[in-house]
Design brief:
The complex is a heterodimer of chains A (about 325) and B (about 290). The relative contact order of chain A is 0.14. Chain A is built from 13 helices and no strands. Chain A has helices at about 1-30, 35-40, 45-55, 60-75, 85-120, 125-140, 145-160, 180-210, 210-220, 225-245, 245-260, 265-275, 280-305. Chain A is mostly helical and about 325 residues long. Chain A has a domain at about 85-275: Orthogonal Bundle (MetI-like fold). Chain B has about 290 residues and is an all-alpha fold. Chain B has a single domain (about 25-50, about 80-285), classed as MetI-like fold. In chain B, about 70% of the residues lie in helices and about 0% in strands. Chain B is elongated. The chains are: A mainly alpha (about 325), B mainly alpha (about 290). Chains A and B meet through helix 1, helix 6, helix 7, helix 11 and helix 12 of A and helix 6, helix 7, helix 10, helix 11 and helix 12 of B.
């Protein structure tokens, strides 16, 4: 097991390295001088030259790359040009909010998607199955910001449920004001639970036909027990795969949702970085989000190895 | 007249065309017809915006700002007194063209990369291309698109390129995996034996056999591209104001959500309907 673990971790290093290289080249190989972009076209050449020096843009590209990579390995992502603090510090300040929001979204999507998928699969072709399929389509068709604004409108202005909980005070940790995470979490879960439901539905349909379920039924197992104990277990792997692969999309959703609900997470850091033309912050955020995806992919594979006895630790 | 060697090889190629039976099957599903009808409506509105829209896209009338939906303004007016319906109509072409353009660019770029990588299977070139693609796929789509739109600068064309970059890895993967099976088939060997060069084999013989899954992916990607474009526009990274774009219409008047919800929900419905239409038709085509 330990060997397997080490091997998986080592295998993700080249990917991380390549991602870092891509992020670097995005900023540096694109035509146009970042210094000019930051200062504006009317900036005087001497100002541009000064900023060039400050950002080390005057060095040859390979040297910039090696310097940057060296700093990155030491955990230095540069200094924000606006806040004048290390980018890593900004990321560590905002990361908890983003992780909390993602976890709330994942939990809610499981709470909604799993029962819906199980029922849809068991009662295939009935009314509930059809309703849930339509709802899943709605979740896929609407962009995150539309769902968010719709939920805010309904909960705040129509039902007046969230006036006290306050949707604009999400600067706190989830355990301090869990209600504040409810609507943003629901928004993200809306898009996630639809596909999750579909996956479970298909899986349930496949498993429900299989021999061992027929045997269980023949032996007098109750339908509820079959659904939760035997079918659900089999559907776990595709479910984890799905949630793992959706993290990237979730990260994108998080950017918009944090923006709408003014949650001071990584997404908001990225958006503010973009509007402030704060290159180091943008670079750092993109890199941090990509690394998070790599780490989660790794975790997903390890979870497989634990829950699926067919995967050997080689 | 006897068939030339080229034509005989083309004859030996697996069938890839669409038959009328498939067309009939497509039209048997009512959902597909609704989706197709919606697409036609959207296309007409997009092309004929100039004639259809009751007001100009930027015709401001401050005395009439935030007017409720009425006969004069079917979907009300925004905070600057501009007719919402007209702005939605004028915003159609940018939203739709952006997503179509981005998917087309991704289809071409991704197919070329996939074709070359698959054809050069096992070489350093294949390895390098695929590793880069794996790495790009690690970056969250919207985050990558935002970063690219930021680096290229705000504007519609840059947003289109950004979305195309985000989508092309998927096309490359799909095409490459198909190329891997096709390149081993006898008709490719025959073409090689007949003296065809690498470029000719790739474009004339392999491409027609591998393009179908890429086209299916393309139809399914258009919906995602619309959403991505709307999200970029929402964040102010798409088409620049005062030009109307659906995503930016939502974000620029977001503070009027309680007072004038139609400002937010009318363009949202436009986005949702177009994504719905292309998704339904895409799925319908996939099932053929």
């Amino acid at each position: 097991m330990a060997q397997y673990l080490i091997r998986r971790v080592l295998l993700s290093i080249p990917t991380a390295f390549l991602v870092a290289t891509i992020v670097f080249s995005l900023v540096h190989l694109v035509p146009g001088n970042p210094a000019v972009v930051i200062l504006g076209v009317q900036a005087s050449p001497s100002d541009v030259k000064m900023l060039d020096q400050q950002l080390h843009l005057n060095l040859p590209i390979w040297q910039q790359y090696l310097d940057w990579l060296g700093q990155l390995i030491q955990g230095n992502l540069g200094t924000s040009m606006i806040y004048q603090v290390p980018v890593l510090q900004l990321i560590f300040q905002s990361l908890p909010r983003t992780i909390e929001l993602s976890l709330v979204a994942m939990a809610l999507s499981i709470l909604i998607g799993v029962p819906a998928g199980l029922f849809a699969g068991f009662y295939h072709g009935r009314l509930w199955d059809r309703i849930s399929l339509y709802l899943a389509t709605v979740g896929v068709v609407l962009p995150g910001f539309v769902i968010a604004l719709l939920l805010i409108y309904v909960f705040t202005y129509r039902l007046h449920w969230l006036q006290i909980a306050g949707i604009a005070h999400t600067g706190t940790a989830v355990w301090i004001s869990p209600l504040a995470y409810l609507v943003p979490g629901l928004t993200l879960a809306f898009g996630l639970s639809g596909p999750l439901m579909r996956i479970l539905r298909t899986e349930v349909r496949a498993v429900a036909m299989s021999d061992h379920i027929r045997t269980m039924r023949m032996m007098g197992s109750s339908e509820g027990r079959i659904m939760w104990k035997w079918t659900f277990k089999n559907a776990l792997i595709p479910m984890i795969t799905f949630l793992g692969t959706q993290l990237g999309l979730l990260m994108g959703g998080v950017v918009i949702i944090e923006n709408i609900f003014s949650i001071p997470g990584m997404g908001n850091l990225l958006v503010t970085g973009i509007f402030n033309k704060d290159y180091p912050v943008v670079q750092g955020c993109v890199l941090a989000m990509a690394f998070m995806v790599i780490v989660v992919n790794l975790l997903v594979e390890l979870v497989y190895a634990v829950i699926d006895p067919r995967i050997s630790y080689r | 007249m006897a068939l030339s060697m080229e034509e005989q090889i083309a004859d030996a190629r697996p069938e890839t065309g669409i038959r009328s039976r498939q067309v009939r099957r497509f039209f048997r599903r009512p959902g597909n017809i609704v989706g197709l009808a919606l697409i036609v409506v959207i296309a007409v509105v997009g092309v004929g915006a100039h004639w259809i829209a009751p007001y100009g896209a930027n015709a401001t009338n401050f005395s009439d700002a935030l007017a409720h939906p009425s006969m004069a303004h079917l979907l009300g007016t925004d905070s600057l007194g501009r007719d919402v319906l007209s702005r939605i109509i004028y915003g159609t072409d940018s939203s739709i063209l952006a997503s179509l353009g981005a998917v087309l660019m991704a289809l071409i770029a991704g197919s070329v990369i996939g074709l070359v990588a698959g054809y050069a299977k096992g070489t350093v070139l294949d390895e390098v291309l695929m590793r880069i693609i794996d790495a790009v796929l690690v970056l969250p789509p919207l985050v990558l698109a935002m970063a690219l739109a930021f680096i290229f600068g705000q504007g519609l064309l840059n947003a289109i390129i950004a979305i195309a970059v985000v989508f092309s890895p998927q096309f490359a993967r799909v095409v490459r995996s198909k190329v891997l099976t096709v390149r081993e088939l006898p008709f490719i060997e025959a073409a090689r034996g007949a003296g065809a060069g690498h470029a000719r084999i790739m474009l004339r013989h392999i491409l027609p056999s591998v393009i179908q899954p890429a086209l299916v992916l393309a139809t399914l990607s258009i919906g995602n591209a619309i959403i991505l474009e709307a999200s970029l526009a929402y964040l102010g990274l798409g088409l620049q104001p005062p030009n109307p774009s659906w995503g930016f219409m939502v974000s620029s008047d977001v503070n009027y959500l309680s007072q004038a919800p139609w400002l937010i929900f009318a363009p949202s419905v436009a986005i949702a309907l177009s994504v719905f239409a292309v998704t339904v038709v895409g799925q319908g085509l996939q099932e053929l």
